[in-house]
Design a protein that fits this description.
This protein is of the alpha+beta class. The chain has two domains: 214 residues, Class II aldolase/adducin N-terminal domain (L-fuculose-1-phosphate Aldolase), CATH 3.40.225; 151 residues, Class II aldolase/adducin N-terminal domain (L-fuculose-1-phosphate Aldolase, 3-Layer(aba) Sandwich). Helices cover 48% and strands 15% of the residues. Helix 11 packs across helix 14. The structure holds zinc ion. The site of zinc ion has 6 residues, from loops.
Length: 370
């Protein structure tokens, strides 16, 4: 891969990871991300989740000009099944590298350099309401007047939706540094001239949507703050999951966290790490102490009465949640527990077949580059 492309994919992975870990913004394998350079576009491949996109995985490179030209040809056409099939062929023809590009690639093609498509819960709590158009007009009057926000009536994802966006913009790229398309019964597409602008603008308008509904998703936003702290502590690009598992939260009310610290079996060591980390006030200091003692990042963090899981990506963090729940079951009951000996732990930590099991979700090589 040429260096220029590599830098773009690194940025695309960072961008995807930022949004991919946030449950309030995207769930499961939904959404997608893209970056344009000259007449090319790098976009998440179909079937991958934002969290999985890495330098070696989950993105496609397309000739963007082919897509823009196609949209100008269909801008006045009714989108039939035949046209949908044709759009898939065009999409395939535009492919320069990678797997099938995301179905929303056409919608990204006319937008700014950095684009993200999300399904934010707050926005969708509004867009599914029968009078959603009116509500959006009221909440975002200023942004709509400034041509920063556009409301798009429901269209099937793919060429029909892309055509609608194309026509809203009169076939020209957006003038503002940042803009957002609110998609009825679906989600949002935000686009901006820089990654920072894309993040700030998306967070800002999502917060505005939440405020209008009087909902508070601070618990999910906290995951971004924790990964920023991890970043500062030297653990780059980690994803954080906030646990809402009832069993886990119920157990934690009964347990003294410091007494359930030690791994009782190999998987607990592999997924949850050598030790859990509790932090009651200063997260930064707790992380420094943990790093000094264990030379690694904590996989399970308890901050006050909330529990978070840390991993290379959000899917992996969900696996940690799974194993941690079993860890709590193992600690339940009054009888004294037998933990793994220091020698057993040492042996497991240098045991490659055990580590290899984790490679399904990330590889150690990719980790160094992103
Ligand atoms: Zn979508």
């Amino acid at each position: 891969m040429v260096k220029k492309d590599k830098n773009i994919v690194i940025n695309l992975a960072k961008l995807s990871k930022y949004f991919g870990q946030r449950y309030d913004l995207i769930q499961a394998a939904g959404g997608n991300s893209s970056i344009k350079l000259n007449k090319q576009m790098f976009i998440k491949s179909s079937g991958y989740s934002l969290a999985e996109l890495s330098i070696s995985n989950g993105y496609s490179k397309v000739n963007n000009q082919i897509l823009v030209d196609y949209l100008s040809r269909v801008k006045n056409k009714k989108i039939s099944r035949y046209e949908e099939d044709r759009s898939f062929k065009i999409l395939k023809n535009s492919l320069l590298y990678g797997g099938n590009p995301s179905i929303e690639t056409l919608a990204h093609s006319i937008l700014k350099k950095y684009t993200i498509h999300l399904h934010p819960i707050a926005f969708n709590m509004i867009t599914v309401q029968k009078n959603s158009n009116l509500k959006i007009n009221k909440i975002f009057k200023r942004e709509i007047d400034l041509n920063q926000i556009y409301y798009i009536e429901y269209k099937t994802p793919g060429v029909a939706l892309a055509k609608e966006i194309f026509n809203k913009l009169n076939g020209k790229p957006p003038k503002n540094n940042e803009c957002c398309f609110i998609l009825e019964n679906h989600g949002i597409i935000t686009s901006a001239s820089s990654i920072n602008k894309l993040i700030t603008f998306t967070e800002l308008i999502t917060q505005k949507a939440e405020k209008s509904l009087n909902v508070n998703f601070e618990r999910y936003k906290k995951t971004t703050k924790i990964s920023n702290e991890l970043d500062l502590a030297g653990f780059k690009n980690m994803s954080v999951l906030y646990s809402e598992d009832l069993i886990i939260n119920d157990f934690l009310k009964k347990f003294n966290f410091s007494k359930i610290n030690e791994p009782l079996n190999p998987d607990s060591l592999l997924y949850c790490g050598l030790s859990l980390m509790g932090s009651n006030s200063n997260l930064k200091r707790s992380l420094e102490k943990y790093k000094y003692k264990y030379k690694s990042y904590p996989r399970v963090i308890k901050i006050k009465d909330k529990i978070y899981f840390v991993a290379e990506n959000i899917l992996k963090a969900k696996e940690i949640e799974d194993v941690f729940k079993s860890h709590l079951y193992l600690y339940s009951g009054a009888s004294e527990k037998r933990s793994l000996s220091k020698d057993d732990i040492k042996r497991l930590e240098s045991y490659n077949p055990q580590k290899n099991r984790l490679r399904f979700w990330f590889d150690y090589e990719g980790k160094k580059e992103i």
